[in-house]
Amino acid sequence: MNRKQDYIAVFDSGVGGISVLRRLVELLPRERFLYYGDSANAPYGVRPPEQVRRLALEAAALLCRQGIKALVVACNTATAAAVETLRQTYPDTIVVGIEPAVKLAADRFPGRAVGVMATPLTMESHRFRALLEHHGDRCRFLPLPAPGLADLVEEGKASSPECEALLTPLLAPLRGKLDAVVLGCTHYPFAADTIRALLGSDTVLLDGGEGTARETKRRLEAAGLLYEGPGEVTIQNSSPDPRMLLLSRELLAYSGGMGNSESEIRNTIAGRG
Ligand code: DGL
């Protein structure tokens, strides 16, 4: 068995984790990636934690059956609810979970005003509260819950009048008042253009995608599991709607939003089964 050639599995409640997948592909272009979006059960952010744990375990089982060397939980909500359980269940697999970029914000914007957008489940989680408690005195953090935003991204409406209408009451009053905003849900970077238009271009948007990609590379390197193949990306989705695979492909190729996705992404998109 050559574990190096096994997949790096990337999992999210839906298409949001593709914002992390694109960072991974940029950093590790010669690896084999297997992305699974659980759009049939999205959004996770409004579910009870036990349900999210069960869904995350089901997704991990499905991915493990296909031969994986690492599991990247590209969903802040699933990390908050399930990363410990996943680590206990798969002790021989590298498990990396994304977290809101609160530490990055505290390092880069000490003493400044920083908004944090995340799902209700993430915001109520013990992990997130501990993260804020740990770094809370280094910045003035302002929670900005945005219910409904992940749903719009799932519908392919990240840059739409609906998205602008949803975010205007939350963000327009803060225009020019925030130094940075943490996008603590992996769906949100796809709405970065709308968020930036409302907040003004001086507000820096931060997300955990790049840090998660770097951590994944570091863990694979330490385990001697980096692979130098031709590189491929396979995308699977739990929704029977074929449009979810098309949307996934579009989002993977999307180079706007956070603004630094310049590398060529050579991808093979395959349906499930
Ligand atoms: N993408 C997920 C996250 O990072 C949440 C979206 C959802 O509510 O399903 O938190």
Gyration radius (Cα, Å) is 18 Å
Flag low-confidence runs: 259-273
Beta fraction of the residues? Answer: 15-25%
Bound molecules: D-glutamic acid
First-residue to last-residue Cα separation: 23 Å
Q: How much helicity do the residues have?
A: 40-55%
**Elements, N to C (H/E):** EHEHEHEHEHHEHHEHEHEH
Q: Average pLDDT value? A: 93
* Largest sheet: number of strands, sense, barrel closure: 5 strands, parallel
Structure annotation, total helices: 11
Number of strands: 9
**What best-fitting shape do the alpha-carbon axes yield?**
globular
The helix/strand class is alpha/beta
Task: Walk across the major sheet and give the strand order.
Answer: 4-3-1-2-9
Please outline what is shown here.
With 273 residues, this protein is α/β, with parallel strands linked by helices.
What distinguishing features does this structure have?
five-stranded parallel β-sheet, disordered C terminus, four-stranded parallel β-sheet, alpha/beta, 11 helices, binds D-glutamic acid, 273 residues
Question: What would your notes on this structure say?
Answer:
By secondary structure, the chain is α/β, with parallel strands linked by helices. It is 41% helix and 16% strand. The protein has helices at 18-27, 49-64, 76-89, 102-108, 120-124, 126-135, 149-154, 161-171, 192-199, 209-222, 243-253; strands at residues 7-12, 32-37, 68-73, 94-97, 113-117, 140-143, 180-183, 204-206, 232-237. The strands form two sheets. The protein has a five-stranded parallel sheet, with helices on both faces. The protein has a four-stranded parallel sheet with strand order 6-5-7-8, covered by helices on one side. Mean pLDDT is 93; it is low at 259-273. The chain binds D-glutamic acid. The site of D-glutamic acid has 17 residues, from α3.
